[in-house]
Specification:
By secondary structure, the protein is an alpha/beta fold. The protein is built from 8 helices and 22 strands. The chain folds into 2 domains: about 5-105 and about 250-335, FAD/NAD(P)-binding domain (3-Layer(bba) Sandwich); about 105-250, 3-Layer(bba) Sandwich (FAD/NAD(P)-binding domain). About 45% of the residues are buried. Bound molecules: flavin-adenine dinucleotide. Flavin-adenine dinucleotide binds near residues 10, 31 and 33.
């Protein structure tokens, strides 16, 4: 029997392991966390709509339900010539490898003065506590922003959506507490048109959101560093801030940078349209860890990680069964985003043919909540999976 290893217990790794098991292959999943973190609904931890536990799925439970083996350990390096994966505590041999370790972050100087909603899951709880302190004081300034990675020119790993969602959710939360005029909300980003990747129509609507949620914008100037209680820009200006939330752009994973696999300048694994690592017949990479091909506006998202898991497992299965059919993830690249604002949301779509935004007051928020419920419970097989989701 083939030894098949999946590295990473996030969106991409779990979906890959589930699909491989379903196709009749026995898989070992390796993750350094014993839970899958549902990042898209973690934006509600700081505003107390979700607890930390609501946003986790225990990998042990998924192992029992789907039948894969599970090792909780840290991956240190991958040796593709020897076909081994070196963990902190042991070495694993493989015949086929699926890499889904996510991405690391391009940190700015002074990163220790900011919190990120996109890094270690526990940070979301720290942000909640810091927000609580400002609410208790009934005054203060909050700055939320995101950065770029100059080594990643296509900028597929810029993560703006969660910054917008946090801003709108914080605004609504403060409004409900009667503090919207006492605690200022600032948004910062170095690019001239943050959010433009979603498409022209959605981008054009963003100013209406900023106005409605009373957010002050600082855009188009490089960020020099985060300081204790301020954000400093290249042009010498500053925003004062009692709570800074910064989402760095993605960067290649350290394990990959040290493993001699083919990577682009930013350190993302080079794959072909079948999700196979370039130059290697038996290694696939899925999710945030891989360099995205296809259109320039493509973005690393959770649902794209799942599309890639489907493509990689389908192609692997057909290859070893001698079937000719293959799938390409390039054809399926698109942006779909339900941008939540706490009191509603907006449904944003960009594909090769068009882009559009549909504002969904009230109902948008409940749709995103419904998605969170569906994601968790369908993975736990408590409810059936819907085709294409
Ligand atoms: C706040 C936030 C909101 C988001 N909202 C949306 C949204 O609304 N819609 C959407 O489509 N996408 C959204 N995304 C993006 C989406 O969450 C990611 O694209 C997705 O998580 C990528 O999945 P992944 O499996 O590649 O990486 P991850 O989910 O990061 O998983 C990587 C896994 O690898 C493990 N790992 C890492 N290093 C090691 C190691 N050395 N050894 C062992 N294990 C390791 C980690 O513990 C983790 O389990 C959001 C992201 C964030 C942060």
């Amino acid at each position: 029997m083939n030894k098949i290893i999946v590295l990473g217990g996030g969106f991409a790794g779990v979906e890959t392991a589930i699909r491989l098991q379903k196709l009749g292959h026995h898989v070992t999943l390796v993750s350094n966390r014993d839970y899958l973190f549902i990042y898209p609904i973690s934006i509600w931890i700081p505003v107390k709509k979700k607890s930390f536990n609501d946003v986790k799925i225990d990998l042990e439970k998924l192992k029992k339900i789907h039948g894969f083996d599970l090792i909780i350990d840290e991956v240190k390096t991958i040796d593709s010539k020897m076909q081994t994966v070196h963990l902190r505590n042991r070495v694993l041999e493989y015949d086929y490898l699926f890499i889904a370790l996510g991405m690391h972050k391009k940190q700015l100087k002074g990163a220790q003065y900011a919190h990120s909603i996109c890094g270690h899951p526990e940070e979301s709880v720290v942000i909640r506590k810091e927000l609580d302190k400002l609410i208790a004081k009934k005054t203060g300034k909050i700055a939320i922003g995101f950065g770029v990675n100059e080594d990643d020119p296509s900028a597929t790993a810029v993560r703006g959506g969660p910054a917008f969602e946090l801003l709108f959710n914080f605004s609504y939360y403060l409004r409900k507490k009667g503090l919207q005029d006492k605690i200022e909300l600032h948004f910062f980003a170095p690019m001239k048109e943050p959010g433009r990747r979603m498409g022209q129509k959605p981008y054009d609507k963003m100013d209406l959101f900023f106005k409605r949620y009373k957010i002050i914008k600082h855009i188009g100037t490089g960020i020099r560093e985060i300081e204790d209680k301020s954000v400093a820009f290249m042009d010498g200006t500053r925003i004062e801030s009692d709570l800074t939330v910064f989402i760095p752009a993605g960067d290649g994973h350290d394990v990959i940078k040290q493993s001699g696999l083919p990577v682009n300048k930013a350190g993302f694994i080079k794959i072909n349209e079948l999700c196979r690592v370039k130059g290697l017949e038996n290694v696939y990479a899925v999710g945030d860890i891989a360099e995205l091909g296809g259109p320039k506006w493509a973005a690393k998202q959770g649902h794209i990680a799942e599309v890639m898991a489907d493509v990689a497992t389908f192609n692997f299965h057909n290859k070893i069964k001698g079937k000719p059919k293959r799938k390409s993830y390039w054809e399926q690249l698109h942006i779909v985003c339900l941008m939540d604002s706490g009191d509603g949301g907006a449904f944003i779509v960009r594909n090769r043919k068009r882009d559009f935004i549909i504002p969904l007051p009230v109902v948008g928020h409940w749709m995103k909540k419904g998605w969170g419920f569906y994601y968790k419970n369908s993975k736990l097989k408590k409810i059936p999976r819907l085709p294409g989701m």
